[in-house]
Structure formats: C-alpha cells, structure tokens
Amino acid sequence: MTALVRQFRLFLRDEVNPNMERVSRIRSGIHGVKNHLRRELDGFQKIDRQGSLSLDTLIKPVHEEDEYDADVQIVMNPQDGWQPRDYLGAVHEALAKNPNYRDKLELGTRCVTIRFANNFSMDVVPRITRGDTHKVCNGVDNRFEETDGKHYHNWFHEKSRVTNVNLKRAVRLLKYLRDRESNYIAKSIMLTTLAANAIQTDDRGQDSVRSVASTLTTVLTRMDSYLQRQQRKPKVRNPVLGSETFDRHWDDAQFEILKESINRYAGIASDALACPSIRDSIVRWRRLFGSGFGRHYKGTL
After folding, report:
1. Is the distance from CB of 192 to CB of 35 less than 8 angstroms?
2. Which helix (H) or strand (E) holds 154?
3. What confidence tens digit (pLDDT) does each residue in 37-54 have?
4. DSSP code of 73?
5. Closest listed residue to residue 44, CA positions, set 86, 84, 73
6. Please, are residues 144 and 136 in contact by the beta-carbon 8 Å criterion?
7. What is the chain's percent helix, strand, coil content, to nearest 5?
8. Cβ(233)–Cβ(247) under 8 Å?
9. What torsion, rounded to 10 degrees, do the Cα atoms 127, 128, 134, 136 define?
10. Among 141, 155, 24, 150, which Cα is nearest to 75's?
11. Per-residue pLDDT tens for 77-112?
C-alpha cells in the first residue's frame, strides 16, 4: 500500500530519526574527543563508533528533555603491567586535561561518560585489541571482557540487507515505542538483537519484509512468539560471540513487562497491517505511535 509506505516514511522523518542538529553535535563531539585523545592518551590508536550510531538505529529523544547519547570505543595499544582499571583511569585522566570536558566527566564501570550541555552525552570506552580478540575494561571488577562490535555490526547489517534495510527502520520504531511508553526497560543492544534474530535469510524478497510496516509486524509477531515460550528471562547473547550477553541489567519482572508489551504491540500491528483501508490502518497504527502518525494524510480520520 503506497499510501501507507509514505506515512511511515514521513513519520520516521518527522518523529523518529535524529535531526541534523543532533547529528552534527554528535559528529562534532566525536571529532573533538578523537583529536584530544590522540594528543593526550598514551597508546591511542583510533576511535570506533559503536552501538546505535554504528548500526544506524539512532533515534532522537521522544521528549525534548530526554537525553541522547553516542557510544565510542577508544582502541588502545596494550600497556605492560596495566590492569583493566588502569586503562579506564588513563582515559579519564586524559579527558580531564581538556577544560571543556573536565567538569563533565563521570567514571562508569566500563566507560568514561562526558555529559555535554543540552542533554547530550558520550560514553567513551577503552578497548584493547590483541590479534582478533577485542576486550573492554570492567573497572569495578578489574577484569577484561571480550567483545566484538565489528562482527556484530556486520551481522546486523546483513540481516538488514535481507529486508532492504527496513530492519533498521523497524528497530528505530521499536526504540521509539519503548521510550514513548516508558513502561519497560530494555537496553537498545538487547532490543536490536531480539529484533534481528527474528529475521531469517529466506525472508529476502518476501512480502513479510517488503515495507517498514510489514517488517515491523514480522519482527513483533516473531519476537512475541519467542518471548511467549520463555518462562523466565532468557539469555540474550551476542550472536557472533556467545560469551557476551546483553541482559545483565534485566530481571524477571522487567522481562514480563517486555513480554506483555511486545504481545500487545504485535496484536495491534497485525490488525493495522491487515486493514484494506488506509484510513482504518492509520487509526490502528496510532494506537501504537500516537497522533503524530499519519498527520500528513489528507483524508478524514
């Protein structure tokens, strides 16, 4: 339905995708951190974009006062005798040399967060690479933790290509729903993994992923089917690194709320997609996305 395709495209543009002002702030922030650490951090190699920024699933804040962030990893040369907390401390110390960052720093478990003005923050994560093994630094437990952002990035983008990149847009909409309702907790990487796990190679070229609406509905119904089979919160593993899980900040109660929410979303989406009338379809999609969806529709609602 061409008219519905247009309504999703406009809704993403107007309500979900980050605007150029925020994108410019992120790019400028990353550029500034990279140039500063290149000068001040011993062992600095390069900076890698991570998370939603790397996967192209970044969304703008649903509420103007909400925070938006960017994740970057600082690839460092291994330093003789250094423990994990030493790398975190070195990044914190190097950033503190810049007066623009000094009073904006927070030392976290695996990162140093810079809290800029206007609700923008950046998580700066030191990463040590030896051969094909990549490790981030847990400063609280003082241990190295294996990760693999590059292969995860490739895995997700291959899944998205199956859907003609509609998966990326569907993930943005899932994150929008999470932030709009604020009734459950799910880290973006966990939500993204659950969504991408729902897409299979043989979906390529099928009606199930032909549009944003159909891809979102397919993802929701398959996520719902998977979650309903789980009696307790499942392990959500990195599909390219089984030792890494994304559910460490999740408990059974939060899982049950997500399970109920996805079940409700899947029912609404399936009903909306099946509507033969664009008017009736928009009315039903608004049960998910609010009155901003379909506001460019010229007919009577």
Report:
1. no
2. helix 149-162
3. 999 999 999 999 999 999
4. E
5. 73
6. yes
7. 50, 15, 30
8. yes
9. -40
10. 150
11. 999 999 999 999 999 999 999 999 999 999 999 999
- Cα 136 to Cα 51, 109, 154: the distances in Å are 14, 10, 19
pLDDT over 90 at 249, yes or no: no
**What is the crossing angle of helices 212-228 and 2-11, to 10°?**
80
Angle made by CA atoms 254, 196, 55, in degrees to the nearest 5: 100
Are 179 and 59 in contact by the 8 Å Cβ rule? The answer is: yes
**Cα(133)–Cα(288) distance, rounded to whole angstroms?**
42
What gap in Å lies between CA 29 and CA 143, rounded to an integer?
A: 29
User: Coil, strand or helix: which one is 234?
Assistant: coil
Residue with tokens 């649903």: 62
pTM above the 0.85 mark?
yes
Side-chain-side CA neighbours of 292 within 13 Å: the count stands at: 15
How far apart, in Å, do the first and last CA atoms of the chain sit? 18
Phi, psi of 86 (to 5 degrees): -70, -35
Give every CB contact of residue 213 below 8 A, 6+ residues apart in sequence.
Answer: 4, 5, 8, 269, 272, 273, 285
Closest CA to 175 of 11, 60, 285: 60
CB 185 within 8 Å of CB 254: yes
Q: Indicate the DSSP class of residue 103.
A: G
